[in-house]
Amino acid sequence: MSIDSNVYTRVLRRESHDSRTAPAVVVASLLVILCGGLLVLGIWMIIDERVGDTLAEFLSGRRAAFDVGSVALGAGTILLVLAILLIWLALAPGRRDRRSRTTERLAILVDNGVLADTVADRVAEAEGLDRGNVSVVVGRTQASVHVTPTSGVALNPESVREVAQDTLVAAGFPSTVRVRIAERGVVS
Amino acid sequence: MNATNRIVNRALLLVTGLALAMVGVFLVLASGKLPRWADGLRDTVAGWLGTLGDWLGSFWFELPGGVALSGAAVLLIAKLVILLVLLIIFLSTRGGGKTATVLRIEGGQGDTELDANLVENLIAARLRESTDVLSAGTGVYRVRRAPAIRLSITLRRGARVPRVLDEVERAVRDWDALAGTTIPVILHLQGRGWLDRWRSATRVR
Q1: Buried-exposed string A112-139: b where 16+ CB fall within 10 A, e elsewhere
Q2: Is a pLDDT exceeding 80 seen at residue B203?
Q3: Which of A85-99, B33-47, B54-68, B141-155 has the lowest mean pLDDT?
Q4: pLDDT tens string A68-113
Q5: Contact between chains at B4 and A21 (C-beta distance less than 8 A)
Q6: Burial of B108 (0-12, 13-18, 19+ CB in 10 A)
Q7: Contact A42 B80 (CB under 8 A)
Q8: Can you give the pLDDT at residue B12?
Q9: Architecture of domain B101-198
Q10: Contact B50/B42 with Cβ under 8 angstroms?
């Protein structure tokens, strides 16, 4: 029995984007508290009219010791910033740092950090470098390798690129590799 | 891999964002701290709000206790209640989609169900034995009305990815042979958390 490829398509698409559940749940919880509070206040105002009068007096700002205009301006600005943040969360694609592919049997999701770690390990191993002197960043389509050579030992960027590329191909995620070699080496 | 409807997440964020933006703009306009050019805008918005307020105040509801309620109050309370119910429905429908049954075979003599723990013991526990693997875990979710297995693996430092992929493939094929059918498997190679930084690169056995 073969696998329904739509399952893999769906899962990989969903897993490579942020679900936005966490911010949505936070916002919803705050709204629940706000709505509940307003509801209690509203019903209280119906039962006891003095509450409404007190509230109106407070909101009018006549009694306030602070400058109502400035507070309104500040609060308005904060709300606008929050609004921009929420709208950005709603509309931005929210891609995660992951790559995916399918084989005959599996769907594979790999965090870019894992690929970067492997590439750095292999480069350090192949070039006889300390692991701490190789740093790799893997992006969506390309990877960049930054190597600090051992002082006095020549390092060929082409061979570094080859090792990195081979590692990525072996993992099944080929990408263009940029190599940067630090001008000044370090002692071990 | 859960069944959360993500469009609804984003819709909630968008609507709340727009509402906050409106309230923010009102507050800024009402602060009276803006330069003169904003006066026209403020008057227009105040006009709209006034019209809306007049309309809402134009009808009254009589309550049995002799209390009269304006249309604004009744509408507001009704809206709050509806919003509250919708929000609670929203909160209670996040997540989900996890299932405890990985396979169900219906036969003439009765049904057979394979529990999700079996996957954990047969695939994840086997992979945990590998020297490349720091931790492995499985979860079974319903995707497109059929179970699918999610296999999350955290690799040890210096692990070889192709070797791990081979091992997983073999473990999954063996599982297939046992289950007698192919269930979709999603393998996730996770990055190490900040705590794992201090773990050793090799495993001694």
Answers
A1: bbbbbbbbbbbbbeebebeeebbebebe
A2: no
A3: B54-68
A4: 778 888 889 999 999 999 999 999 998 988 999 999 899 999 999 9
A5: yes
A6: exposed
A7: yes
A8: 95
A9: 2-Layer Sandwich (3.30)
A10: no
B198 vs A134: CA distance, rounded Å: 18
CATH 3.30.70.1350 in chain B is located at 101-198
Chain A contacts in chain B segment 107-166 (CB below 8 A): 143-144, 146, 148, 155, 157-162, 165
Say if the Cβ atoms of A82 and B162 lie within 8 Å. Answer: no
Task: Confirm if A92 and A18 have CB atoms less than 8 A apart.
Answer: no
How are beta strands B146-155 and B133-143 bridged, if at all? Answer: antiparallel
| Contact residues on chain B for A111, CB-CB shorter than 8 A | 188-191
Domains and CATH numbers, chain A: 5-91 (no CATH), 101-181 (3.30.70)
Residue recorded with tokens 């400035």: A70
Whether A11 sits inside 8 A of B191 (CB atoms) is: no
Contacts of B82-85 spanning 24+ positions with Cβ under 8 A: B83/A31, B83/A35, B84/A32, B84/A35, B84/A36, B84/A39
Pairing, β A176-181 against β B60-62: unpaired
Does A59 or B174 have the greater pLDDT score?
Answer: B174
Q: Is the pLDDT reported for residue B65 higher than 70?
A: no
- Report the predicted TM-score, pTM, of the whole model to 2 decimal places: 0.81
For residue B5, the surrounding DSSP H or E stretch is none
And the tokens for B163? 């070797």
Query: How far apart (Å, rounded) are the C-alpha atoms in residues B38 and B97?
Result: 51
